[in-house]
Amino acid sequence: MRAIYLTGEMIYLRAFVLDDKACAQSWFPGPFPVDATRAEAWLKDEHKTPWARTKHYALCRLDGDAIVGSAKVWSDFRHASATFQMAPALPDADELRGDAIRVMTRWLRDEGEHLTVTFALASDEQASIAAAEAAGCIETARFREHIARPGHRVDKVYVQALNPRWRIADDGSTRQGSEGAS
After folding, report:
1. What's the rounded mean pLDDT across residues 152-157?
2. What are the C-alpha distances in Å from 60 to residues 23, 65, 99, 158?
3. Largest interatomic CA distance in the chain
């Protein structure tokens, strides 16, 4: 089942189901691959607490419905942050992640009305960074050579989108628009 507000141009987000255990190597949020038994245990544990602050979503291609990764979203109902786990050796992983960033920014910031939405990205993920900037994110932190790549290291970049409703306007009001203006 696809939620229209969680659908982008290339991907859509959905909750995990038990049948996703078969392709855990594409989405499991860890540094090492897991088998179907371990993935099933993780999925059952994930669904025990419906109101947990951390939620995981499957990233699926629009064409073919294949799972290409996962998004881990932490939220305290004011702030939200997201990280991504993409399937290994996926040639268009950066573009798919960028599409997920566009979808998630609209969903978390604009519809969920979080004050801020933060994404952690690698500095060599240029399509993802460009998508984040296009969605209204700015770079807020950079950790030098934080992420290991084969043969070298790259920076970890945090980008953040501030909800426009919570920006301080030029006239000193706390919200943009006619509210607070005299």
Report:
1. 97
2. 12, 5, 11, 24
3. 62
Distance CA 33, CA 55 (A): 20
Q: With contact defined as beta carbons under 8 Å apart, do 62 and 10 qualify?
A: yes
Q: Token pair of 95, please? A: 């573009």
Asked whether 106 and 134 are in contact (CB, 8 A), the reply is no
pLDDT (mean) for 13-25: 90
Q: What mean pLDDT do residues 113-125 have? A: 96
Residue type, 27: W
State the average pLDDT for the chain.
88
Spell out a b/e string for 62-75, using b for 16 or more CB atoms within 10 Å of the CB, else e: eeeeebbbbbebeb
Strands 79-86, 116-122: parallel, antiparallel or unpaired by DSSP? parallel
Q: Average pLDDT, stretch 53-77?
A: 92
- Reduced to 3 states (helix: H, G, I; strand: E, B; else coil), residue 166 is helix
Cα–Cα distance, 2 to 58 (Å, whole number): 11
Cα dist. 87→68, 69, 163, 174 in Å? 5, 5, 31, 42
